[in-house]
């Protein structure tokens, strides 16, 4: 778990496994600990790279304000340090916005994107108010403790996970966490989604009601995506639907790597653990034709 100076700040990161690289991005206040299940379950086939954003977890504080552009540059320089030319990128929640920004800024570095409960903007009253409350609470150490308890408990599948997430969140810098939340309020890349040409996997919980609008914005804007909806889940897929999420990521990357090697494109074959929101979704999801074999043979 190295600590290195990346782009003028101390970054804590972890590389586990070998193979095709997948770089994971966490939302505000949380840390790379949120991807522990992905580290364990995917590193037997892929090179899993997780890191704490500036001012979060074990990374050092940032002396300049947190912006998505700054985080993307940090990620690029981390990939350069690790001598990784290309990777898949996976962003969770607000981290998905950063993943989209990275794919727009450095399209040559990312083979594909995985958006988990993600959004390209914050535009509805409910989410805006939630983030505004988080901005307010994260201004003071006393108040941010309550925010940490709520966010880490909400992302926990048990007491052990809660303790780990809370421990790492407490290490963050209050000002930098506040800046991350605040920047998300004004960010939008919705108008530029059509510029992303790499394949994108959209993963959402069916019970994540407030994010349905953001899923649809991505569907309308992206030119090449696959959509999987988790029937009984809400927002916190990396920890509360880890087994299913990791399996679909594994299969999706296998298919697209097969396509790269065979110069084709392929649709997702839906495992039993997943379902589309309704049958009509099969007609609207932007699958592409392929002659690649089904998942079971990859």
Report on the architecture of this protein:
The structure is a single chain. The chain has helices at 36-42, 68-81, 94-105, 125-137, 141-154, 159-169, 174-186, 212-221, 237-240, 242-262, 281-284, and strands spanning 3-6, 9-16, 20-25, 46-51, 87-92, 110-116, 200-205, 225-230. By secondary structure, the chain is α/β, with parallel strands linked by helices. An eight-stranded mixed beta sheet has the order 1-2-4-3-5-6-7-8, with helices on both faces. Helix 8 links the parallel strand 7 (200-205) and strand 8 (225-230). It starts with a strand and ends in a 14-residue tail after the last helix. Residues 268-298 have low confidence and may be disordered. This is Hydrolase. InterPro entries: AB_hydrolase_1, AB_hydrolase_fold, AB_hydrolase_sf. Keywords: Hydrolase.
Q: Nutshell version of this structure?
A:
The chain is an alpha/beta fold. The chain has eleven helices and eight strands.
């Amino acid at each position: 778990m190295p600590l290195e100076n990346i782009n003028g700040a101390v970054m804590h990161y972890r590389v586990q496994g070998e193979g095709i690289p997948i770089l994971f991005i966490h939302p505000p206040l949380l840390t790379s600990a949120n991807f522990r299940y992905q580290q364990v379950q995917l590193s037997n086939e892929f090179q899993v790279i997780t890191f704490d954003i500036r001012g979060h977890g074990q990374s050092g504080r940032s002396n300049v304000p947190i912006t998505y552009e700054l985080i993307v540059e940090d990620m690029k320089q981390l990939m350069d340090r690790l001598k990784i030319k290309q990777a898949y990128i996976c962003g969770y929640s607000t981290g998905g916005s950063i993943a989209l920004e990275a794919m727009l800024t450095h399209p040559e570095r990312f083979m594909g994107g995985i958006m988990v409960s993600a959004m390209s903007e914050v535009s509805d009253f409910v989410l805006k108010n939630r983030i505004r409350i988080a901005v307010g609470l994260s201004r003071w150490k006393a108040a941010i403790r309550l925010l940490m308890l709520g966010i880490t408990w909400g992302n926990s599948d048990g007491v052990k996970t809660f303790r780990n997430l809370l421990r790492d969140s407490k290490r963050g810098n209050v000002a930098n966490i506040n800046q991350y939340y605040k920047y998300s309020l004004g960010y939008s890349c919705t108008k530029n989604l059509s510029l992303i040409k790499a394949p994108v996997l959209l993963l959402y919980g069916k019970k994540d009601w407030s994010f349905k609008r953001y899923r649809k914005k991505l569907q309308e804007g992206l030119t090449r995506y696959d959509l999987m909806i988790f029937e009984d889940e809400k927002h916190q897929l990396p920890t509360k639907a880890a087994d299913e999420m990791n399996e679909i990521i594994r299969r999706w990357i296998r298919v697209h790597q097969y396509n790269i090697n065979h110069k084709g494109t392929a649709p997702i074959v839906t495992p039993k653990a997943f379902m589309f929101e309704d049958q009509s979704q099969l007609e609207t999801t932007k699958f592409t034709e392929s002659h690649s074999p089904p998942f079971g043979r990859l």
